[in-house]
Amino acid sequence: MPSISDEWRKRLHEYLGGTVDGLGGVSQGIGGIKDHVHLLVGLKATHCLADFMRDLKKAGSIWVHEEIRDRKFAWQEGYSAFTVSPTARAAVMRY
User: Fold this and answer.
1) How many CB atoms lie within 10 A of CB 44?
2) How many Å apart are CA 80 and CA 95, to the nearest integer?
3) Where are the domains of the chain?
4) Label partner for 93 (CA 20 to 30 A): which of 13, 20, 27, 46?
5) What does the alpha-carbon distance between residue 12 and residue 87 come to, in Å, rounded to a whole number?
6) Three-state SS across the chain?
7) CA dihedral 32, 5, 25, 29 (to 10 degrees)
8) Other CB atoms within 10 A of residue 62 CB
9) pLDDT digits (tens, 9 = 90+) for 54-81
10) What is the average pLDDT score of the chain?
11) Is residue 95 scored above 90 in pLDDT?
């Protein structure tokens, strides 16, 4: 459902980037549209993807609830994750 407004989308992406860094990842690109977010993130081999995504989505929800005051905002239950080779990273960043 389209719930990420044009008015605050960039701020959300910036917040998520800072949160990625705070969780020990490396934010390499964040973008998206009204109904989803794309992240290009470097994670350590010791990261658990499910835990990382849980913490990132939780922090993002709290930010939207408190900063935007949209108490109905929620992320979908799942997510998709893909590995990206170093040679494909630039193309993924452009996407």
Assistant:
1) 9
2) 16
3) 9-94
4) 46
5) 28
6) CCCCCCCCHHHHHHHHHHHHHHCCCEEEEEEEECCEEEEEEECCCCCCHHHHHHHHHHHHHHHHHHHHCCCCCCCCCCCCCCCCCHHHHHHHHHC
7) 40
8) 13
9) 999 999 999 999 999 999 999 999 999 9
10) 95
11) no
Cα–Cα distance between 90 and 95 in angstroms, integer? 9
- The answer to whether residue 83 scores a pLDDT higher than 80 is yes
Whether residue 94 has pLDDT greater than 90: no
Percent of the chain with pLDDT over 70: 100
Token code pair at residue 94? 């452009």
pTM of the entire predicted model: 0.92
Residue with tokens 């997510």: 79
- Predicted confidence band of residue 52 (pLDDT cuts 50, 70, 90): very high
